[in-house]
Specification:
Strand content: 5-15%
Order of helices and strands: EHHEHEHEHEHEEEHHHHEEHEEH
Pfam families: Aminotran_1_2 (PF00155)
Number of helices: 12
Catalytic activity: L-histidinol phosphate + 2-oxoglutarate = 3-(imidazol-4-yl)-2-oxopropyl phosphate + L-glutamate
Number of domains: 2
CATH class of the largest domain: Alpha Beta
Low-confidence stretches: none
Structural class: alpha/beta
Family: Belongs to the class-II pyridoxal-phosphate-dependent aminotransferase family. Histidinol-phosphate aminotransferase subfamily.
EC number: 2.6.1.9
Protein name: Histidinol-phosphate aminotransferase
Strand order of the largest sheet: 2-8-7-6-5-3-4
Mean pLDDT: 96
Number of strands: 12
Bound molecules: 4'-deoxy-4'-aminopyridoxal-5'-phosphate
Largest sheet: 7 strands, mixed
């Protein structure tokens, strides 16, 4: 959708000319554009989900459990690190979790800071909460330099810092030293968006380890990626209970439907199976990165389930040529780069064949 029928309406001025966020949802054979887990649940889990939905259907005349305490307890148990339901918040995707964070801690006259290139929804959360949004550049290799980060904080005195690890769209993991420096220097809250953490190389520390004694730090996660639950819409955040209470003030009552809560709990009860493809996808990512390097391309070092590669004088032409061959990837990131998600062996083979064809025809 490129144009909207909003002209003539008394829209907020900052929304005039804006379009709804989202990658194209196209019905093509190979979809490697939104970093989903390509492996769906087994029939056994599908049956459990169906039974749970049937049970909750009998009570759909009632509002759901408003604070989703049982689900939050399950999420806390999944995260470990001694966390309890009081340390965990949950919403319809981590997008909604982040909106809650900005509704509680940003707003008019307040500033949100991030390090670019990064997740392209952050400026939208800021716009929608009437907050100023400021970015500072990442280093050439997409890492965040500690001194530069601290200088950025001192210059802007942000109310909210959003940092992504592993970062989207570059795949770059953040070292704990950077997170600690950001929290220490920052007057406001710091959220580490770990949407892709489960795909990080073994031993990559999570910012969850840094939570004790840091009440202004939060770590957000999602069930959309490694957990193979993008359609279930469940994102969550771990922080000090006081931080969670702040988010409870701004959430809409009954924001998580009974069906969402029950289905997410079934998925969590089957965590082993839901996460079973993570190792395979890590391998697919590493293989993909090595293959792209072998093809003479530049590849950003990735700890996520996607790879950013380039650089192309006309990346849109390449994106389109791949789409013409039934392979959908993402035109995102710094100019000249493209992002491709790790997929099944068949999807990876289709991507490689298509890219080879396009690059060879250009040679
Ligand atoms: N954070 C990052 C870094 C992401 O890439 C995404 C999804 N692309 C999200 C958050 C939001 O995911 P969801 O709302 O599905 O939990």
């Amino acid at each position: 959708m490129s144009t909207l029928a909003t002209s003539g309406l008394p829209l907020r001025p900052e929304l005039v000319g804006e379009v709804p966020y989202g990658a194209p949802q196209l019905d093509v054979p190979v979809r490697l554009n939104v970093n989903e887990n390509p492996y769906g649940p087994s029939e056994a889990v599908v049956a459990q989900i169906a039974a749970a939905v049937a049970a909750s259907a009998r009570e759909l005349n009632r509002y759901p459990e408003r604070d989703a305490v049982a689900l939050r307890a399950d999420l806390a148990a999944y995260l470990g690190h001694g966390l309890t339901a009081d340390h965990v918040w949950a919403a319809n995707g981590s997008n909604e979790v982040m909106l809650h964070v900005l509704q509680a801690f940003a707003g008019p006259g307040r500033t949100v800071l991030s390090f670019a290139p990064t997740y392209s929804m952050y400026p939208e959360y800021a716009r929608d909460t009437h907050s100023a949004f400021v970015t500072f550049p990442r280093a050439e290799d997409f890492t965040i330099d500690v001194d530069a980060a601290v200088a950025a904080i001192e210059e802007t005195r942000p109310d909210v810092v959003l940092v992504t690890s592993p970062n989207n769209p570059t795949g770059t993991a953040l070292s704990p030293e950077v997170v600690v420096a950001l929290v220490d220097a920052s007057p406001g809250v710091v959220v580490v968006d770990e949407a892709y953490h489960e795909f990080a190389r073994t031993g990559t520390p999570s910012a969850l380890e840094l939570l004790p004694g840091r009440p202004r730090l939060a770590v957000s996660r999602t069930m959309s990626k490694a957990f193979a639950f993008a359609g279930g819409r469940l994102g969550y955040l771990a922080a000090d209970p006081a931080f969670v209470d702040a988010l409870r003030i701004v959430r809409l009552p009954y924001h998580l439907s009974a069906v969402t809560q029950t289905v997410a709990r079934v998925a969590l009860a089957n965590a082993g199976e839901m996460l079973a493809a993570v190792d395979r996808l890590r391998e697919a990512r590493d293989d993909l990165a090595a293959w792209l390097v072998g093809r003479g391309l530049e590849v950003a070092d990735s700890d996520a389930n996607f790879v950013l590669f380039g650089r192309f004088a006309d990346r849109h032409a390449l994106w389109q040529a791949l789409l013409d061959r039934g392979v959908l990837i993402r035109e995102v990131g710094p100019p000249g780069w493209l992002r491709v998600s790790a997929g099944t062996p068949e999807e990876m083979a289709a991507f490689k064949t298509a890219l080879d064809e396009v690059l060879t025809s250009d040679d």
